């Protein structure tokens, strides 16, 4: 049986709405993700998909339920241990690239590796290889302002993969891209997942992309259901 990369069991998350009663965003989410599997998460705006991705990526904690990353129950981990596990195991891609504007494309992809302690030479080799994979080797020295929106998002994708994560979490990663560029980014994601065993949970409103993933789940009323 394949190792479980992500396991959510009965995850609940509530928010205090000020003078109003608590609002339950996640009421009991359960999900299992194995190596090489890509799952499309579809949900209307405000349904809680970003909250779910933040909990899965150790950026937030559930009020109830358990989260396992690469077989490890994260409930008892300190903030420092959560940060290390997140850095080494999880990659994030958002709708907006969030690249650091003062650094080149190459440097943006190197930064997570340097934070992990990877040598400059090894980080450079890894970054060059990733950028070449998405057709950006000739743009490696350019800063984000000199790149198109599609190029910026491909750099962000490379940055998410820089430390060789087991889990990729993506929140509308192609939402601001034209169809051709969205296809290029998605194809790179699929290729990497198949070749390396990367597991991905991808929130998307694009039905064509969602249909090409291994399965689809929908967030409805705080629960995950098959889409």
Quick overview:
The chain is an alpha/beta fold.
Contiguous runs where pLDDT drops below 50 for at least 5 residues? none
Task: Summarize the main sheet.
Answer: 6 strands, mixed
- Average pLDDT works out at 89
In the CATH hierarchy, what is the superfamily? P-loop containing nucleotide triphosphate hydrolases
Query: C-alpha Rg, in Å?
Result: 18 Å
Please report the number of helical segments: 7
The share of residues in extended strands comes to 25-35%
Gross morphology: globular
Strand order of the largest sheet: 6-7-8-3-9-10
CATH class: Alpha Beta
State the share of residues found in helices, binned by percent: 25-40%
Instruction: Indicate the CATH architecture.
Output: 3-Layer(aba) Sandwich
Topology of this structure?
Elements: E1 6-15, E2 23-33, E3 38-42, H1 49-56, E4 64-69, E5 72-73, H2 79-89, E6 90-93, H3 105-116, H4 120-133, H5 149-161, E7 167-171, H6 179-196, E8 199-203, H7 207-211, E9 215-220, E10 223-226
Parallel strand pairs: 3-8, 3-9, 6-7, 7-8
Antiparallel strand pairs: 1-2, 1-4, 4-5, 9-10
Helix pairs in contact: 3-4, 3-5, 5-6
Note down, in words, how this protein is organized.
Helix content is 36%, strand content 26%. It is of the alpha/beta class. The protein has helices at 49-56, 79-89, 105-116, 120-133, 149-161, 179-196, 207-211; strands at 6-15, 23-33, 38-42, 64-69, 72-73, 90-93, 167-171, 199-203, 215-220, 223-226. The relative contact order is 0.20. The chain has a single domain (37-61, 78-226), classed as 3-Layer(aba) Sandwich (Rossmann fold). The two termini are 25 Å apart. The strands form 2 sheets. A 6-stranded mixed sheet has the order 6-7-8-3-9-10. A 4-stranded antiparallel sheet has the order 2-1-4-5, covered by helices on one side. It is built from 7 helices and 10 strands.
């Amino acid at each position: 049986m394949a190792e479980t990369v992500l396991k959510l069991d009965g995850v609940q998350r509530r928010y205090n709405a000020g003078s109003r009663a608590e609002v339950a965003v996640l009421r009991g989410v359960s999900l299992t993700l194995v190596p090489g599997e890509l799952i499309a998460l579809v949900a209307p705006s405000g349904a809680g998909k970003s909250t779910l991705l933040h909990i899965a990526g150790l950026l937030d904690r559930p009020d109830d339920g358990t989260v396992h990353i690469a077989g490890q129950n994260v409930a008892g981990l300190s903030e420092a241990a959560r940060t290390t596990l997140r850095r080494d195991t999880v990659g994030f891609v958002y709708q907006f690239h969030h690249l650091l504007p003062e650094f080149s494309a190459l440097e943006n992809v190197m930064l997570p590796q340097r934070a992990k302690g990877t040598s400059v030479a090894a980080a450079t080799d890894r970054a060059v290889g990733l950028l070449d994979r998405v057709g950006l080797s000739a743009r490696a020295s350019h800063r984000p302002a000199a790149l198109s929106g599609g190029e910026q998002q491909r750099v962000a994708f490379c940055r998410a993969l820089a430390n060789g994560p087991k889990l990729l979490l993506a929140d509308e990663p192609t939402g601001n891209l034209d169809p051709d560029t969205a296809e290029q980014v998605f194809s790179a994601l699929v290729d990497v997942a198949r070749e390396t065993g990367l597991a991905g949970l991808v929130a998307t409103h694009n039905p064509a992309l969602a249909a090409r993933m291994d399965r689809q789940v929908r967030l409805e009323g705080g629960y995950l259901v098959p889409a």
